[in-house]
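Help wanted!
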Amino acid sequence: MSEHAVPPGRLWWLAAGFGVWCITLVALYALHAIGCAFAWSAGSLRTGLVIVLLAGLLAIAALWLGMARAAPDPALGQPGAFLHTVVVWTLIAAFVTTLLTLGPSLLLATCV
Amino acid sequence: MNAIAGHPSQSGRALRLHRELAAIWATGPGLQRLASVNHSVIGLRIMVTAFVFFIIAGLLGMLTRIQLATPQGAFMDAETYNQVFTLHGSVMLFLFVIPMLEGMAVYLTPKILGARDFAFPRLTAYSYWCYLFGATIVVGSLLFGVAPDGGWFMYTPLSSNTYTPGVNADVWLLGVTFVEISALSFAIEIVVSILKMRAPGMSLDRMPIFGWYILTTAAMMVVAFPPLILASILLETERAFGLPFYDPTRGGDALLWQHLFWLFGHPDVYIIFLPMAAVLSTLIPVFAGRPLVGYRTIVVAIIALAFLSFGIWVHHMFAVGIPHLALAFFSAGSAIVAVPTVLQMFAWLATLAQGRPRWSVPMLYIFGFFFVFVLGGLTGVMLAIVPFDWQVHDTYFVVAHLHYVAGGAFAFPFLAALYYWLPHLTGRTAVHRLSVPAFWLIFIGFNLTFLVMHLVGLLGMPRRIFTYTGHEGWTGLNLVASIGSFIMTIGFGLLVIDLGVHLLYGRRVRRDPWKAATLEWAMPIPPAPYNFASVPHFDSPDDRVAPAALAPALARGEGYLGFTRNGWQETLGVHMTSGTPDQLVVLPRATYLPLWTALTTAGVVLAFLFKLYFLALALGLVVVGLFVLGGQSAGLAREYGPLPVGRGVNVPPHTEVAGTPPWWALIFALIADGTLFTSLVFGTLYLWIAAPNWPPAVSPNTNLALALGCVIALFVAAAGARGSLRAVASGRAPQAWIGLTALVLVAGIVAVVGLIGAVSPRPSEHALGATAAALLGFVAVHAGIGVVFLLSNVLRIGAGRVSPKRIVDLRLTRLWLDYTAVTGTIAIGLVLALPTLVAVLGARP
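Answered by r_m:
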């Protein structure tokens, strides 16, 4: 089978997982700042933060499952296989990072 | 040359090819060297300049150690000490480390990736001159007693007008911004060149790991430097025109500076580390005699590290009063960032463990790295824990930590790289008699200096004090640290002598003294200005090559472009992922234009410094004119169609393809610009949420008609750009479209200037007005640059440089105007919406 080049646009997948982590972090930090600035109740602020965290985790998980289920396209050859492996592992790393760095913090007192 | 190319007729062919290429690529003698745009010349120049600034910064550091060696030292007064330690940090980080690693990247990257030069040689030269002039302004201020004195990170309100009325802070703000813009230009060029200009056949999965590291580092620079550039611009406008971005009495917030600074500052330390990790990943396999363990793992670790570094900046601000929940995000991130770092370290250790290490001077410094960086990393994880950080914040514990990571992450790997690549630069191998004692003096001196600083910090010694009474229990430790610093300095002195001995007495070597596996050794050393007499075809099953076997064939012209044509400086552009050649890149030759442009830019900076704003504006217009002038000779004067490049391959010149380097350069420039814009938007929202004295006493009021008119003008201009592009692509004259586009842009600029003039509250009265003025100013500047794009288009169309196949000029203009329309809409929308949001949601409790 003749090999096709991996489309350059696929390189953005390298940034997908940690890009969602960054967005989730910024969203959590901003929501927390707004909630504390406008004296939201602790319960509703924490609920909002948990929803944002779950949304981030679901987004990364969806990307991970989608990538992991799709085997590397054999027509893209070794570069395609390499990119697939690296993308999957960055998604896994991003999921674990999101869980560990953003999850336990939500147990703390909200605005102290 | 005869021995390299083998058979006499083959060596004759190699020699002929060398002479033809040298005639095209060589830099002329004497003053003509000021016109050089060659990456080897510029790279070496950057490194030598950076080394000079290292010596200056090191001497400044020594002055602080002399002052602190004994209690109540009378060597310097407080004011002088403030300037000395501020410059020590600023010069080390902004004028030595970043330029040095960029210099290494500029010199090495095209060679390692199999290219003849970078994508934009004139930009390389311009960036160097901007660095030199900006750095001279910063360091020169010491001679006039007006050096920056607010610490290397220049916190507000200390650096605001009230507490720093003199020009000290302006020197830092303008000089460092000047250098940062130069660094950003290098970064954009490096990203584009790595993605598009490699040896044919070098797909991304087989690119030397050095390429992955430098690509990621440069991409990080593109996103990290703009927040600092923005912060500096805002502080300078506050100091010059009274716009209260950081003044809490008028709706500003001093913490905004800290957020913007550290959003740059923390990624900066990984920008410093990653190129040195590139050095380690390149050198360790050579000295271990086996391939690097875990290539893919390292690529994942690099990407993880790059992103994580952007999400932990607040660990520099643990003591400012941010709620614990928010701090915990950054504490956890700061701990987890050790994981991708450690993955790389284990890969290096595994490579050494599975190989047969040979000990040489570079390996000594690599050992030094492991020792020092592990200690620095461990104290970093300690500092990531918030309660511990609260105890040692602003003490010498932090100073010790940062020197361990800076020394470990940069100094030791850099010295390993210096000894490893010195034969490449000089064509000689080292004598090493002085190198080993120099290493041990540096290693012992470094640890003696900075290890005890952990203790004196835990004993409560604050940073940045110019003396102490002697009753605190710090005296002995400070004396030990100062003695250690002298030992270290002697070591560096010995190293400098060793470099001199190497240059004068080193044994001549033709190529590859290390039996390396990367392409930079597949050429005679010191290298010719064109790097490769013919560009190699990369068909290795992994990222390694055999330089000794490859070099003779390349010298004989058996790769691509083993010939000269039309006096062009040619190299190849490739498909980003596969490495298949897809364009012939024709590069500009030596010119004094970058030097003149950089001198004029320096004039702009100095005019701002001396508050001659109209002169600054006038010189700024000259700079713009020089850029337009430079653009006129870019590309080729006519269409050529596919051209033979050797090995039976024909590709079109870069002017006739879609994925040409200028296109990608503008995309990455817009990513940088977009980061600056996003920082401005978030800064505006941050002040609303966190700053005191909101809402303002004066009701906000924005002219809706002018605002809508401006947005409409921007979108009409974007449509006009599309019209001109379609006209040229179909062979019709585009001048009418260009004229319409220019007209609506000018109308838009007039509308925005009208909006700025009518901003309420006035920009100097309250941060709401100041941020509105900043957002609208952003729109005006970008629309103005759009007019410059159009002017360049008209001139190049008139000169015959644009045709249906050569339309990149108009594509660039369209992209710029699309971006201006989108960001302009967001900016104007925020200016309109924010007062309403503030009014509706009411004051913060």
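OP: Thanks! One thing I noticed: Chain A has one domain: 14-107.
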